[in-house]
Amino acid sequence: MGLSFEIQYKKGVENVVANTLSRKLDQQAENNSPKGLSQTKSDTSQCLLISHLQPKWIEELLASYEGDQKVLQATTMLSSNPDPTLNLSIQQGILRYKGKAWVGKNGMLRKKLVTTIHTSSLGGHSGVWATYQRLKPIFYCPAMMEQVNVVVQE
User: Fold this and answer.
1) N or C: at which end does the chain have fewer Cβ atoms within 10 angstroms?
2) How far is CA 66 from the centre of its chain?
3) The pTM is what?
4) pLDDT per position as a tens digit, 53-105
5) 5 occurs within a structural domain
6) 78 shares a domain with 27
7) Domain limits at 23?
8) Residues 6+ apart with CB under 8 A from 68
9) Which of 109, 87, 106 is nearest to 96 (CA)?
10) Does 3 score more than 50 pLDDT?
């Protein structure tokens, strides 16, 4: 194939790229002491960077809350009266009703979700009821059945 490469092994501290979050410093190399001597040093493991990826649909979900009066009422009610019987919660910035992600009124996310579920290979252009039943366990939005009806009829 004409590929030329070389595999190199790097031990402990020299291999700073591999497994940064869990690698511990090689105590013997750090101390430069023989195995028989015991020196105590504190663990100096550090976390230098943790990256966090957020899917685009979550960004769209959070953007759908802007200016939505029902979302505003729900979050206000939740902050003033955290009653578990309301079935409302906020997890990682996402408003949830009975554990389902609440989809706000603004933006095109409602239509995108219904279209994706309806036209997917698993959905197979099922009817209104089947599409609604696939969305219902995951997402909540007021008048979701009406949105499903509109998309399926298109």
Assistant:
1) N
2) 20
3) 0.61
4) 788 889 999 999 998 899 998 888 888 877 777 788 888 889 999 999 999 98
5) no
6) no
7) 12-51
8) 104, 105, 106
9) 87
10) yes
